[in-house]
Amino acid sequence: MKVGFIGLGRMGEGMAANLLKAGHEITVYNRTLAKAAPLAAQGAKVAAKVAEACQGDAVITMLANDEAVSGVVFGDGGIVACLRPGAIHISSSTIGTAFSGKLTAAHASAGQRFLAAPVFGRPEVAAKGQLFVVAGGEPDTVKAAQPLLDAMGQKTFVISQAPKDANLVKLSGNFLIAAVIESLGEAMALVAKAGVSKHQYLEILTSTLFTAPVYKTYGTLIADGAFEPAGFAATLGQKDIRLTLAAAEELRVPLPLASLLRDRFLALLAHGGDNLDWSAIGALSAKEAGLDNA
Amino acid sequence: MKVGFIGLGRMGEGMAANLLKAGHEITVYNRTLAKAAPLAAQGAKVAAKVAEACQGDAVITMLANDEAVSGVVFGDGGIVACLRPGAIHISSSTIGTAFSGKLTAAHASAGQRFLAAPVFGRPEVAAKGQLFVVAGGEPDTVKAAQPLLDAMGQKTFVISQAPKDANLVKLSGNFLIAAVIESLGEAMALVAKAGVSKHQYLEILTSTLFTAPVYKTYGTLIADGAFEPAGFAATLGQKDIRLTLAAAEELRVPLPLASLLRDRFLALLAHGGDNLDWSAIGALSAKEAGLDNA
Amino acid sequence: MKVGFIGLGRMGEGMAANLLKAGHEITVYNRTLAKAAPLAAQGAKVAAKVAEACQGDAVITMLANDEAVSGVVFGDGGIVACLRPGAIHISSSTIGTAFSGKLTAAHASAGQRFLAAPVFGRPEVAAKGQLFVVAGGEPDTVKAAQPLLDAMGQKTFVISQAPKDANLVKLSGNFLIAAVIESLGEAMALVAKAGVSKHQYLEILTSTLFTAPVYKTYGTLIADGAFEPAGFAATLGQKDIRLTLAAAEELRVPLPLASLLRDRFLALLAHGGDNLDWSAIGALSAKEAGLDNA
Amino acid sequence: MKVGFIGLGRMGEGMAANLLKAGHEITVYNRTLAKAAPLAAQGAKVAAKVAEACQGDAVITMLANDEAVSGVVFGDGGIVACLRPGAIHISSSTIGTAFSGKLTAAHASAGQRFLAAPVFGRPEVAAKGQLFVVAGGEPDTVKAAQPLLDAMGQKTFVISQAPKDANLVKLSGNFLIAAVIESLGEAMALVAKAGVSKHQYLEILTSTLFTAPVYKTYGTLIADGAFEPAGFAATLGQKDIRLTLAAAEELRVPLPLASLLRDRFLALLAHGGDNLDWSAIGALSAKEAGLDNA
Predict the structure, then answer these.
(1) Do residues D91 and D190 share a domain?
(2) Chains meeting A at 3+ CB pairs closer than 8 A?
């Protein structure tokens, strides 16, 4: 297939590379052009403008937030203006449900198709083409996009015909991860203040009941206090909890744990934590408990 | 070794049976005598009084809460009064840290040894001798008790010389599980109100990021709304969160997520949920969100 | 002064009447024209369009929310398009700080002046001209508007040169009232479940430490369970907490109590409470506690 | 009446003095004997032992917590052992409901009468005999004690025949005050971070909607950051929230705002705030928001 790919961050880079490997004809676009060089070396065409990435069967966006996606979708030379009727915009970014609904409507008005296909997995997983894809869209749209999703991920879960439901599932997944971070942060502050080794404690947890990698990954970051460089920045974590709460507000679902996480992120950002890994909220309990080297 | 075993509930039954299989000489005691019959058939002696279970090298207690343990430890004919000097009381119950400290002091005054050895695992794991044991006590006490711990569990983690630290680790583990339940309850209420299938959602979670069995086990109970019969009763969950908060108060560690769980359990019990599985707190978010069949 | 007044709800009606009494020349506009009749009888001109209310020295808006204000301010025939340079838009609505900033900028670009002047007080207080006004704007703008503010309120507090600060103070005031409601709801659920009379309890509170009218007013509503008709609707309360949290997010200030209130309002709305008085969140604690007639 | 008075702290001193002024025959006891000197000068007899204060018609206790009351009530030479049958123990301390129930039962077993009569008011109010008394006990007991309550307070509210209900009302009142402190702390952090003066803000609040003295008193302490010397120590505030939560747990009433306050007090104590005024929890929001001079 002939596909545009917009957004060559740490995730997008690997995803685009896997599309190339699978034999698709890829035109990449990135605001900072230099990031396109490695992909050009692998055979990608490089677009100077968004419009140039919208000439094929589909265009995939993998950007930081609603604002960034909005910037390439709307306006002169944007995706809505340039994509041919019937072509598909596949949005893999973690965006809000209300904005996803807006994209759905805009593409429908323009005779284009829209598929929300957010992904689970960190950059190294994206590089291996082993992401999990959560897809929301019309059945024929999903079917048409499947070869692309298969190139980027190990499995696709089709969740709903409404794109925004896929975005909701993605947001809720990040909420669940943040909940793991908070619970570990509280538990580790508790045992550490009693004098128990955080590392030994974590070993007990992860070799018994909490064998999922998220416990190991984030527990180690908290135990080590190693929040730089960020694998996933606190500002992005804060954004995702905000979007989760916004979706919950629209649906009228109280989420007290998400509200707690919201305040944790704000406290972290209020103390200059923008560029720390989002797991740094897991150090706040120890700080509140008066532990020195937390 | 010659050992007494007090408390033949669903956990204790399997633990005592594994001690017998390992060749130890076991005298069992249970308030309701009838529960001792299966173990008698496997070769255990049956004690009519607590004192009769305190004639050997060690006595193991596996009871529901602080009050039950207190009832067999103190007073005439209790463990402190009857255990010989140098013998070991191994407490595997999930008890509070303050009470654990009290037991430590009482046994020390009586010239006896005390080992806190709470366990992770549900009844079916106990039956297989595959529990994880978290031990706190003097090194020589741990060493002397090791053959018994090995008979009941697949691995022992020695956490501290202070018994109460082992109890703290156990309590914090139950807090972490309750946190998983709450986070799943909120996330599932959110996606369910949007119309997403709870079962499909759970399948996505457990086949991607949340592969630990606790997510599968408790997520399924919440998705099915299947809280009876209780694998672990809500009253016990409430007790463990209370003991976690009590330990945190003594150590001066704020635990906002544990506080949230406390209120969840009280709301559940206020509506007659005493005998439901503790995962029933995971249905409260859906109820708050106005979902009918949650 | 020659003044337009837009928004003749329960608050605006009394405010406009007091402007007339003070001798100002008032042109009123309301989406539902019929509401203007009583004011016409008192001497007001009635505008058929927003533009007709923008021909004088100032125009005052008193509307339900950001969206309603936006609807009369922007677009063809809106306030920005029609108000003469140098004239003042006085916004008395309870709006968000971000939106207030947007209004400030829009009027500045059009050469007009903008004053945020939200008010404290219920409709009966507005009718008496006894409101408290919190003003934010340039000193000369405040000075020019003072005769109008004096006609509507008993006192003006000039808080800042930035209009949005006045809106923040207003929002925070509503947050404080909602906090009173929540605290009363919890305390009354607690003593009521012990069997203490809610009315006697309230009498004790309000005749000793909690003599402020808010305790009496809202405590009585909760004790009586009398939430209809709404003095201030739950949807408006939810909106104000949302705007408070939005302002706090922009400023990076964690507000755990406001987060709790957010969830209370969502739970109320999820159960059909849109048209109840906002004090109905004060009945949720009793409901959680399993009290029947709460 | 012939009355013993035990506990000459800042509150008890004034209460005992007013009993003397009213013409009662008072025997005072205090652990630190020196504190009795001013009262001896006013005509009180000074007891060297608790027992000597238990020879009359009634004995009043005004002590810091359950433990202190327990210390003078139980054991050889304690109130239960020494008070004559039919005489009354009036407990004015802020104690827990479970402990109040224990006192009720102990005195009943000994043929004595028990009245819970906790008070609202700070030391300067106690000195003027203007306290508010909340009484719980049998009607004839209340009647018999009334002359004493009248000497100490301006009004008595008889809440229930069960003494512990009076203690619950007192605890809930302290919870409501702490809720005011928390809400002010959050609101002031919010407006202060926007640049609004905390003192001006407080003036607006207290001259409009929040005219109750608690807002003025605690708001000023927070705005000034003046938490020493403590009018009411943080450790006592923490104790009262703990007892409120304990009563709520027994009654199965979720209290999320009280849970939040619990964590605030623990965070304060974890940072060495034991001797600060309890309103110091109102500075924690500003600290979390990253405000420097909070």
Answers:
(1) no
(2) B, C, D
What is the rounded CA–CA span in Å between residue D119 and residue C29? 55
Distance of CA A33 to the CA centre of its chain: 22
Q: Catalytic: A170?
A: yes
Last residue of a domain, one of A138, A161, A184: A161
Q: Is the Cβ pair B270, C289 closer than 8 Å? A: yes
DSSP state of D83: S
With beta carbons less than 8 A apart as the criterion, state whether C61 and C69 touch. Answer: yes
Question: Does residue D175 share a domain with residue D156?
Answer: no
Q: Tell me the Cα Rg of chain B.
A: 20
Determine the residue among D288, D291, D292 to mutate to test chain A binding: the one whose Cβ has the most chain A Cβ atoms within 10 Å: D288
Do the domain assignments include residue A78? yes
Residues A230-272 pLDDT 10s:
989 999 999 999 999 999 999 999 999 999 999 999 999 999 9
Cβ-nearest to D179 among C164, C177, C183: C183
Distance (Å, whole) CA A190 – CA B33: 39
Contact A250, A294 (CB under 8 A): no
With residue D257 as reference, give the H or E element that holds it. helix D256-270
Inform me whether the C-beta atom of residue B158 falls under 8 Å from chain C C-beta atoms.
Answer: no
**CB pair distance less than 8 Å for C263 and A269:** no
Q: Specify the pairing of strand B113-116 against strand B88-91.
A: parallel
Q: What are phi and psi of A20, to 5 degrees?
A: -60, -45
Distance (Å, whole) CA B135 – CA B154: 13
CA nearest C72: which of C49, C97, C100?
C49
Predicted local confidence at residue A191, as pLDDT: 98
What domain range is D140 assigned to?
Answer: 2-161
pLDDT value for D292: 67
Residue A272: CB atoms within 10 A of its CB come to: 11
Stated pTM of the model: 0.96
How many domains would you assign to chain A? 2
Query: Do B257 and A182 make contact, defined as CB atoms within 8 angstroms?
Result: yes
Question: Measured between beta carbons, which residues in chain C are less than 8 angstroms from residue A248?
Answer: 266
The reply to whether residue A267 touches residue D288, judged by beta carbons under 8 angstroms, is yes
- CA gap A274, A268 in Å, rounded: 8
Of C252, C262, C264, the CB nearest to A266: C252
Domain with residue D229: its CATH number is 1.10.1040.10
Note the pLDDT tens digit of each residue in D42-77: 999 999 999 999 999 999 999 999 999 999 999 899
**Domain match, C90 and C196 both:** no
Yes or no, beta carbons of B259 and D255 under 8 Å apart: no
Rounded to a whole number of angstroms, the distance from the CA of A10 to the nearest CA of chain B is 19
What are residue A177's phi and psi, to 5 degrees? -65, -45
The interface residues of chain D toward chain C in range 7-36, judged by CB-CB distance below 8 A, are none
> What are φ and ψ of residue D7, in 5° steps?
110, 90
Q: Which of residues 241-280 of A touch C (CB under 8 A)?
A: 242, 248-249, 252-256, 259-260, 262-264, 266-267, 269-270
**D125 and D96 in a common domain:** yes
| Alpha carbon of residue A95 to chain centroid | 8
Is C293 inside a domain boundary?
no
Q: Are residues C100 and C228 in the same domain?
A: no
Q: Tell me if B236 sits within 8 A of A233, measured CB to CB.
A: no
What is the count of residue pairs from A and B with beta carbons less than 8 Å apart? 193
- Mean pLDDT, consecutive 10-residue stretches, chain A (294 aa), reads 96 97 98 95 97 98 97 96 98 98 98 97 94 98 98 97 98 98 98 97 94 94 96 96 98 98 98 97 97 64
Query: D162: helix, coil or strand?
Result: coil
In angstroms, the CA C119 to CA C169 distance is: 10
Q: Is A294 inside a domain boundary?
A: no
Same domain, C204 and C244: yes
In this prediction, residue C122 carries a pLDDT of: 86
